[in-house]
Amino acid sequence: MADGNQVNGGLKSALEFGPVLAFFVAYLWLKDRTFTIGGTDYEGFVLVTAGFIPVLLLSMAALWKLTGHLSRMQVVTAVLVVVFGGLTVWLNDDRFFKMKPTLIYLLFGAALAIGLMRGESWLQSVMEGVMPLRREGWMILTKRVMWVFFGLAVLNEIIWRTMSTEVWVTFKTFGLTAAVFGFFMTQAGLFRTYAIEDQDPAE
């Protein structure tokens, strides 16, 4: 299999983010339509969710074939998409799919919390190659990411329960990604302070 470092960056990003953007576009296209299948009426959101599941699985299969690797986060996300997306379609109830991000962020936050209680940074195990930090830096960053995950879980609950489906879809597509990106942008000071240098100036 191909080495992940040799995969074209644009192709990799398209496979990772393409399904979510496709979900957003398809929802905008079908949101006001109702489809009758087998005598049951399905809103556009439910039909788009049904289509999103195989698209996501196919994109992840392509990523695995190209890189020979899928992160634990990707695998957990895929499982929850299948479970909650399947429940949404089977029960014809969009609430299950809207709850999915809540559960994802709660699980990730809880996993980081368990690692911290064991004196370990499980975030380091999945991101060390991207950001080489000293152990103290990883522990601080892990605590902060843990609270971000819990905060996003709460935020998702507030938005899908109090706002329209269109607002929630926009939030899920762009808001969650922007929030995570914005958080890491604010951690520049931590990265500078705890970065592992090629050579220790004190030596």
From TrEMBL:
Coiled coil: none
Topology of this chain in the membrane: Multi-pass membrane protein
GO CC, alphabetical: plasma membrane
Alphabetical list of InterPro entries matching this protein: YciB
Predominant subcellular localization, coarse grouping: membrane
Transmembrane domains' residue ranges: 13-30, 42-64, 70-90, 102-118, 138-155, 167-185
Subcellular location: Cell inner membrane
Keywords of the record: Cell inner membrane, Cell membrane, Membrane, Transmembrane, Transmembrane helix
Family: Belongs to the YciB family.
Role summary: Plays a role in cell envelope biogenesis, maintenance of cell envelope integrity and membrane homeostasis.
UniProt protein name: Inner membrane-spanning protein YciB
Organism the protein comes from: Sagittula salina
Lineage of the species this protein comes from: Bacteria, Pseudomonadati, Pseudomonadota, Alphaproteobacteria, Rhodobacterales
Gene: yciB
